[in-house]
Amino acid sequence: MTSEVISDPIDRTRFPIDPWALREIRYDPSDLGLTETLFSVANGYLGLRGNVEEGRDSYAHGTFINGFHEIWRIHHAEDAYGFAKIGQTIVNAPDAKIMRLYIDDEPLLLSVADLQRYERTLSFRDGVLVRELVWRTPSGKHVQLRSRRMVSMPERHLAVMDYEITLLDANAPVVVSCEILNRQDGQDEFHEESAAMGTGFDPRRAAQLAGRVLEPVSKWEGDGRSVLGYRVAASRMTLAVAADHSIQTTDEYEVRTQVEDDVAKHVFRIQGTMGTTTRITKVVSYHTSRVVPPLELVDRCRRTLDRAKEGGAPAIFAAQRAWLDDFWERSDVVIEGQPALQQAVRWNLFQLIQAAARAEGTGIPAKGMTGSGYDGHYFWDTETYVLPFLTYTSPSFARNALRFRYTMLEAARQRAREVNQRGALYPWRTINGEEASAYYAAGTAQYHIDADISHALSQYVAASEDRDFLAREGIDVLVETARLWADLGFWRKTDGEGSANLFHIHGVTGPDEYTAVVNDNLFTNVMARANLRAAVRSLRWLADHDADSYARVLTRLSLTEEEIEEFSRVAEALHVPYDEGLGIHPQDADFLSKELWDLPNTPPDKRPLLLHYHPLVIYRHQVLKQADVVLALYLQGDEFSLDQKRADFDYYDPLTTGDSTLSAVVQSIIAAEVGYADLAERYFHTALWVDLADLHHNTDAGVHVASLGGLWQALVAGFGGMRDYLGVWSFDPRLPADWTSLTFPLTLRGNRLRVKVEHEQITFTLETGTATSLPLVVQGRTVEVTQLCPLVVPLAPPPLLQGRPSVRDIVGAVREDGSVMQATVPAHPTTLEAEESLLS
Amino acid sequence: MTSEVISDPIDRTRFPIDPWALREIRYDPSDLGLTETLFSVANGYLGLRGNVEEGRDSYAHGTFINGFHEIWRIHHAEDAYGFAKIGQTIVNAPDAKIMRLYIDDEPLLLSVADLQRYERTLSFRDGVLVRELVWRTPSGKHVQLRSRRMVSMPERHLAVMDYEITLLDANAPVVVSCEILNRQDGQDEFHEESAAMGTGFDPRRAAQLAGRVLEPVSKWEGDGRSVLGYRVAASRMTLAVAADHSIQTTDEYEVRTQVEDDVAKHVFRIQGTMGTTTRITKVVSYHTSRVVPPLELVDRCRRTLDRAKEGGAPAIFAAQRAWLDDFWERSDVVIEGQPALQQAVRWNLFQLIQAAARAEGTGIPAKGMTGSGYDGHYFWDTETYVLPFLTYTSPSFARNALRFRYTMLEAARQRAREVNQRGALYPWRTINGEEASAYYAAGTAQYHIDADISHALSQYVAASEDRDFLAREGIDVLVETARLWADLGFWRKTDGEGSANLFHIHGVTGPDEYTAVVNDNLFTNVMARANLRAAVRSLRWLADHDADSYARVLTRLSLTEEEIEEFSRVAEALHVPYDEGLGIHPQDADFLSKELWDLPNTPPDKRPLLLHYHPLVIYRHQVLKQADVVLALYLQGDEFSLDQKRADFDYYDPLTTGDSTLSAVVQSIIAAEVGYADLAERYFHTALWVDLADLHHNTDAGVHVASLGGLWQALVAGFGGMRDYLGVWSFDPRLPADWTSLTFPLTLRGNRLRVKVEHEQITFTLETGTATSLPLVVQGRTVEVTQLCPLVVPLAPPPLLQGRPSVRDIVGAVREDGSVMQATVPAHPTTLEAEESLLS
Against a cut of 0.95, is the pTM above it? Predict the structure, then answer.
């Protein structure tokens, strides 16, 4: 198959290409849910969906604070021992975005307004959402409006918004009602279509909370400032929100204020004169806590606002720009000569840092702070998909995310007890550290999260050389997760004389959620092996280099040399299933004995499968939601030869639906590595446009953070060919044929390395940092980059496979009449093609 | 191991032995929940728990009507496609049992009353519960009280109770308040201990309904009659209850009546004189419906009561006795020389017929009408455990139960669609025909229920020769279930040259609920094969003998000769897993690769396992809740040799916890067959006393109907050695050494055959019926019993194995240090011994 032009899925008459911004130049209310998500602003702590200033014409209002959640009792229709008991759902916080406008007492309502001009821009450099429009009011007056909204990166608890009104051709009374509105989570429902649980359902949506969630505790108003304080009904978390209001105008005006339990209003009534520009600025602060009383949080809000007043809004905007300049300097990925891709990549990276930057003391939710999808929970997404980006570009943010897991360690120990194991078992999904997954087959059974966390932790330590974190906290995570593996599995002698005594792990679910509760899942076993080895290696390193810390660790964890030896033995005996006949790694012990799913004859309206087939039906077939073995080939790539990777990829790729957005990025990386250049690029595109083109029809519930993180990996590890095995950084690029170059920076041991990939060469520049040189491996050859000058290394051509894999006669699958299954299954379209059809 | 005396677990100072009654001669409130269940009276439609007449001192009030249920929306904490949506819970009907007594205005309250004499008797012959006591009132007067309660077998909608009061030594005002009280199911909670879901849980208990369940629709009172009518809030079922009250006395009295929405009172105020006996009689009728308005049901109650008035209470009691005389004549099992066993066996059979007799148009709930455990649902228990008893002693009741499944066929077809299959899939648990199991792994995944129903249906048809039922209704069930199997599984060529093309069934759960969602479960495959063969055989028979019916069937079911051929091919290719190395049948494709559960080191306070271990932990081990392969060895016994049965039993018996009451009876039958005489007897005892000695600590929630039915099979098939393979009745008895004889009747093709088993011989007597002779097989030899005279056949001694099986080195299970698991596992106690310790 030759490379085809992959078309741009975006309507450029509405969203023109801009390499540094997402721009919308035509108002369209038909996809409000999508655009509210795409235009979100957030900083990893506070997130504001792109709802219009007016507070009307919304699909879903959203003001989310990372980790600010309500709890509720899970009522299992049939309960069993150890099932998760407490549900956790992110709370929609009081909405401080609202600035309603009235001209001649007529409200501006975009869906019906006569808009003479309209433009909305989310600038990736400024970190500001700007809306500019000209409204022809019902009485025929023209008003020019410009509003800005940002959530501060440097000031975690701060948001700023302003509104400029210019009457172009007449005088008119102007009213701007600045509000903080607590809509109550229970009533703040999604669009009917998705909320209608009666006719359909989607387990990926948030649970609906019933009754009053936020109990008002405190309210105050004065000197242009409004303050509201709340406590969450059951979780007892606390929140305060405060806003300072100011006006710049030469017109006469008066101010009316009102503060009640669920609303604080600051209403400017202006005698608007033609040609005058009036600007109203609202500076908002949110503080939340698990324990601090609301009144204390109110004080914190005051202090944040007082400090913000010092330089005023201009200083806040300037600081935002400076912060982002620094971010882009250490994180920007440049694709030469591909402006549409460049824009999409930067939007992805921008949303990624909006989800992760200030997530301090919390995880990074699956939807960031852009929606309530997945209840605001933290999954393995953070470690497997997002952490690499942070580790190699913003290591201090990676450290924060890993420290959050460390703070959850005691809860994970407790959870291990609940499921009758030693060590620690991290919850599959959680906000507060407790397991919130009510469906264990695709939840608690995904024990691999322990190994995923350990993998990210080891990678962070190797890339940052943050030995202090390792010795004081990280090592505890590595050891307790290693303990779980050693306890979870068991020894069994294989049949036959003189056979090996192997260690098996049964009854677990791997990453592929279309296969559940299996024995010896390859991904799990390979990752558990790495987990055990990492614990042993780190302990040995400590023993050799930091005897005091080592002694403290042994005491703290009641650890003995014997147990460390056991970790080693278990690791080296861990069973890695391999099928000699097919020459591939089975996804699990029984995977190859299953019936093949007949994907070519599965109609499009039955996709994704999870919404149309009972789990039992899906589970009993060879069909994948997402990369599983293929993910192992990536994460533990030094454990597999290129030929093995190729064989495995050829087998699994045609069986992979990609119904999860976690899939395409991984398929892209391995497709690139094994030589399917065209396929790698196609998978890259399906990942790149997941949110921007709403490929999974649920971006209205928030961005797909894991896919965003995976996209960076598809660029750096896939096309850039970068790998990090135990702190050895290697590069074997696979630059797409139609790209001129790909450039990205990496932060390695505190040094900034910029990598430029071209077809014939790769160039390394050591820009900042204390290292005088860094060792790297390029296509198997060790090279050294120094601070003196850029290092240019010529590249050998990468392997190139023609076409793409298809279902073959690989499992002896025959029909009842004796015909081979494969005979009726031509090279069939995977989800990729279904999605590509959307791209056209 | 030599046979030991198995001790009687019953406190005979309180419950003396009586071969025809359960008697209690000392009041003891410490186990109210248990005795309320044990003294229940019911007729398969209406059931009254053994609550005291006074309506106080209750553990759980209970008035249950088979199939009378409320529905509720199942809220899955994480939903998925095809999960059950509507929960169903039996409703606690308005309580008409209450007859409160006051002497000198002092209420009789058993728990504090000064009882001079006390006796409660449930007569198996009379079908009446009688309570007699002498109460010394607080003022020192002695009153003799006698009350009776019965639910009529011949009159399905009728119950009668009376109360006799005799003042022995003084005059006193006597008040008897006869009440019908609607407590509202929601408030009618279980004892705190079990209702406290906060600290513990037990999935075997009923769901708690919230809010008002019964909406009052109608009330009326007059002429000594009270009537109440209700509609169930969500299910819209309707109920009417009516009571006639009468008094026989020579004392003066007056009557006050009161009727409100939730109570109807008929209060007798008597000027009691010493020596006079006053009798108050209450005749009660219940009618329920899915569609008929309450007022129509009120009319039906009136008609039932009017008819009951004709002969009065004496006639009702007499009819009950006559009905039961007939029942015992066709059903009694006599164990010569074992009065304690005899009593327990008769109590079991009596409760069994109380659960099944008038279950017309409904199934037989897991707890009969004696409690709300398992929500009043119907399971495979009916077909696998209860039906054989009915088929061979009361075939018309068996027909009713099977016709109920036929009426559910359309819902089962619909359910098959919901789980993406052809044919029909019966719900794992249901009242109204819809799947109510919210936990698919031990619910919907138990597809074997289809084969269980077909098995019972085929057996009924063979034993009754009810070809009419087969041709008009039964065949539809056989074909639609066969269709499910042909669609559910798939063809796969085994590895290796010239290997067979076999049919596999993946992703199902067998009877053993400690192993879930497996491939090629032996029980399922063997039973599915029988199901497919039964469909083909029945179709072929129809084609040969009833061409018209056959043609109608083909049309009705859109059935073709090709599809029938496919059923045959699938049946004969169905994979039956067998392990050559161990010489046993694996429970499923992967069972033998699992880790052994360390039962000897599982402390007693961790039993049953399901209440102390997460399902994932249980599932990944070799440990059984109940007989699985062993059940297949019984139900499809002609498919396995005696040596195979012995090898399989030896393997599985030590791994079987018996945490389900469905287990012991089956283990007993196969233990007897393979030669473990002592073990067979011990298992029989654990089944015999399940309820009477409350061995599973939950008889308070109702009797274990499946165990009751299984017990009959343990007697007839286990010790009597009777089997029925395709209508060939064979006998190979295993009479316990300390039993003199075992006698039981069987109804075969409408003829009554009485079988008397002694150690040296077996005697058959053809008592009634039209057949002049019946062919039978005794220890492999065909004999003919005729109406002329009893047939005596001498018996060869049965096989006898010493001791009992224990865990051996059967799976190569080795510890990490290389030691074999078995080395640390001596012949270990199964649940049997834990339970036996309770028996001592």
Answer: no
